[in-house]
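Technical annex B. To support the medicinal chemistry partners, we prepared a structural model of the target in complex with AR6, based solely on the information shown next.
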Amino acid sequence: MKEYMYKSTKISIIKGNITKIKIDAIVNAANNSLLGGGGVDGAIHRAGGPDILKECKTIGGCPTGEARITGAGKLDAKYVIHTVGPIYRGGNNHEESLLYNAYNSSLTLGGENNIKTIAFPAISTGAYSYPIDEAADIAIKAILDFIDKNNSLEEIMLVLFSQGDYDLYERKLNRI
Ligand code: AR6
């Protein structure tokens, strides 16, 4: 775990399982249906129990780059913010702006719901194949841009599932 301060917001990185984090909101890397899947999405629904899916069914899906909020069932978080990152198809299909929007929409929705602390997985870098190096640059840019315009969030945590992803984020954040 490592912490950085950017203006008045803490940015922290941690290697681990996002379903175990005690925080106001965790972000789910969902798909357009919001009806569950594998990866972090599957882990969140498994650990959170059926209430999250029940609520998701009432939402009616989510376009790529947008975000929707539900309760967090049995998780230690208060909310789950479900966002949909792009499927990486070579990089010339608006992937960069869609991934940026997924982070920005999640942060904006968090701010609107009075959330002070939020944890993200590395959206789109698993089943959706976004190269982690580029995805990390976009995630960090979206986070810094958000903080430049808002001071509502106290902590933004990045939860990395592998040591390699953690080390990459650490190298990049050491430069800001
Ligand atoms: N905690 C933190 N990170 C995790 C966890 C976890 N418990 N489990 C996996 N990761 P992915 P995507 C990491 O595939 O690429 C689903 O089926 C994982 O190692 O979960 O956005 C959805 O329903 C990777 O670094 O999400 C969609 O259909 C990162 O989370 C699709 O996958 C994202 O990998 C979305 O694909």
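Notes passed to the chemistry partners:
Residues 2-173 form a domain with the Leucine Aminopeptidase, subunit E; domain 1 fold (CATH 3.40.220.10).
Residues 69 and 81 are 4 Å apart (CA to CA).
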